[in-house]
Fold LacI family transcriptional regulator.
Amino acid sequence: MVAARAGVSTATVSLVTSGKTAGRVSAGNIAKVDRAVSELGYIVDGLGSSLARGRSNIVILVAPDVSNPFFAKVIDGVRGEIGDTFQLLLSVTEAGRMPTPAVVRNLLSLRPAGLLVDAPSAEFLAALPAAGPMVLLDTAGVESAAPAVNFDVAAGAVMLADHLAGLGHTTVAYLDSTTGTETFRVRREAFCRHARIHGMDVAAQAGTTIDVAAAAQAFAGAWPEWERKGVTAVVCGTDTHAYGVLQEARIARLEVPGRLAVTGFDDLPYSETSSPGLTTVRLPATELGRAAGRQLLRLLAGEDLGGADATGHTLTLGSELVVRGSTAGPGTGPGQRR
Amino acid sequence: MVAARAGVSTATVSLVTSGKTAGRVSAGNIAKVDRAVSELGYIVDGLGSSLARGRSNIVILVAPDVSNPFFAKVIDGVRGEIGDTFQLLLSVTEAGRMPTPAVVRNLLSLRPAGLLVDAPSAEFLAALPAAGPMVLLDTAGVESAAPAVNFDVAAGAVMLADHLAGLGHTTVAYLDSTTGTETFRVRREAFCRHARIHGMDVAAQAGTTIDVAAAAQAFAGAWPEWERKGVTAVVCGTDTHAYGVLQEARIARLEVPGRLAVTGFDDLPYSETSSPGLTTVRLPATELGRAAGRQLLRLLAGEDLGGADATGHTLTLGSELVVRGSTAGPGTGPGQRR
DNA sequence: CTGAAAGCGCTTACAG
DNA sequence: CTGAAAGCGCTTACAG
């Protein structure tokens, strides 16, 4: 250990670099070590350090889809919360896929201080070796003993159903995400259940990946039939799907919201500035990341998040209905737009 | 080491688990070890292993913007090339920012087998300690001794200028990205230089972040003046900017391409399906990732990528002009659309 | 307050 | 072909 050339033992150096000097190292030695460290440009080797303490200081975030603006906000939240203490690293997988068990094992062999898992499938969780502190994100609909932070998407779906029914819609279509994450099932089922209560008919369904163009195409293909069925509103599983519908509606000269009401989930930035603005269920993405980061921090500090009841581990973040120009009563026709 | 209970030494186990048995371990012992390994569910500890060999098997990809569809393709390319051999991990930074020197030092202390750096600024590279194998991606316009893989964005810009001039445009506007990555400067300068050669006037410029809504807003604000100046085409630094222009043009009932031609850079998926389709310079993102992955692999294998000439380290991927419906001659008016 | 020593879990010459 | 041993760079009881 080069820095031992400060004239002290490696033990002392270690104490100083790790900030455990309180009542254990003299001020003079601290100064000496600090000087030597900066002179030599020394930097603690993460590998040796991690091996000695049994775990590294990295936190690995595992997610099926790194590249979408919604997830970017989640990451921001996590980073803001744990970024100073831990090194946050993203696992990279094929777009839309969770890592294979083999990859996870590799990840785990790095002895991360903790694991953050976003939108896992039930199978993924089942195959996950229970190793070390872990917090789940956005896992609505999946059973797990691990602490989790979720959105209350069902409540949002209910508000959406209330809103549309209140506007007088009686026949709606649902454009779902086909990525197979449980949260989408929860959204859809909650909406359909509540629509039924209001006597609102979910007359048709379609699904695509989370992609504007794919959604536009699916809507274009389905619309003739939906129109025949008397559909006056399209509820979309994500804002991205709604953008596709909005786009296609514009091309087809379908007045929104006069002829067709459109809604989404997420409240991505563009939903505010699109024309018309998109009525959507806001899911607080940044807050999700922050909350998950905080939970992990508590876990790492040795706190027991549990509590006796089963829900003690799970934090649920409220969702919120944001009403904008894309919804109005059915048949309000041209001129009502905006 | 638990697996030593296979009845052999730890050295033998290590030889087997790392696959270096060739002529060094008897078939019987290999079998014994394999059995013990699977019985115990043993998995080589990455920390100990990495420390012993001096470096880990992770490759860290550093990039300013993880969450955009273009970068997703780059990642895909990298993963496809090195994913089997190394553990690819993404560094997480504030959106649009490169990591700070302190973060990079932390990253480096994990002793990654290699580093991949996407779209770095000159300052970032200057501050980067020259540690270990590294390949730069998309670094057009930045000087560096490190091997790099770039797009020939200047050639694309030239083709674009040729195309617009050929269609008869004489006055155009340039909507740039303000993210400050050098590649955007290169695109713009190459375009402007070549426009001038054709006698085409770049009469106005504006810039926004890479965001549809921001671009739409900027265009909406600038258009009155641009129109007064006689602008008949808007050249955008990225496809995303062009989407904003396309959107705003539709709202303002500006016929594209009849009244206004619009172009982009990237060729994102949506550019093919938008209406009209977007004329753009295709930058082969996946191939960029693959090429960079391959370069790094060669570097890690100890190959010298150099060569005597300065360009020996740098691979340049060709760009390609994709002409779609968003460009036509000026003043072709309504009815010419598509 | 300080240093010598053991140990984290592996790999790799080395001697047999 | 095999095992005992040294060593990777740190941290942490432990004895002083």
